[in-house]
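Please, structure for the following, as tokens.
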Amino acid sequence: MAMLFWGRGLRNAVTKKAMQGVQLYCTSVVSGRERVNGVDLFYQQTGKGDHAVLLLPGALGSAQTDFGPQLKSLSKDRFTVIGWDPRGYGNSRPPERDFPLDFFERDAKDAVDLMQALRFPKFSLLGWSDGGITALIAAARNPSLVNKMVVWGSNAYVSPQDVKIYNAIRDVSQWSERMRRPMEEVYGAELFIKTWEGWVDGIGQFAQRPEGSICMELLPQISCPSLIIHGEKDPMVPSFHPQYLLKHIKGSRLHLMPEGKHNLHLRFAAKFNKLVEDFLIQ
């Protein structure tokens, strides 16, 4: 199964050559670090629009590995786009990443506090995979700060089926070298293994909570306009998850991409970007 997707929010075989291409076409992207909740959080920013948008990456992800096409191509006149590396991921190290039961809540607070520190009084959220879970929590906890939200490849609870999926990809030695390489370039082989296994254990612990809840109880508190996107060929996120979000987030809408997998925003970047832009400017 690991050959069919780029992990839980892991990127689509981003090679060093491809990343060099990202750096070339993102020449208007500026990088910085902001001290937030005791951690120096790394971020990238591009565009000059009035509408601030925060990109939230997936597990072990970063702005550059997860959102190259969005940093490049989302309208720089309409939007100011900020991508961040959550604590312990990418360039927001130290600290090493850990996965206490509240790690999504911690990421949500870090994300919101980062945007406040960067002086964006209101902003929209684009969250992929784990980043989508973070976005759900951030939107629920901060209704006065969030304009709109887009999530894809995300879930509000962990089912027994999910646990089987996670355990099936625990051993990265079973991954192809093409899939391991990008993460090993970021973390080194040993730390990648340690952090990935920590994530599998971390996400799995929610299965022990009532109904496997990550943030089920928070969904009714989300009041911003919300778009849920789902790739119908996503092997990581069964279709009952976006349906659950649609049912429990008031006024939300669901867009299905028949050929989309977990990395649909990378594989179908132009279509995805237009869908998101149209939603954000409505």
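The beta strands are 30-36, 39-46, 51-56, 79-85, 123-128, 146-152, 226-231, 253-257. Residues 56 and 127 are 5 Å apart (CA to CA).
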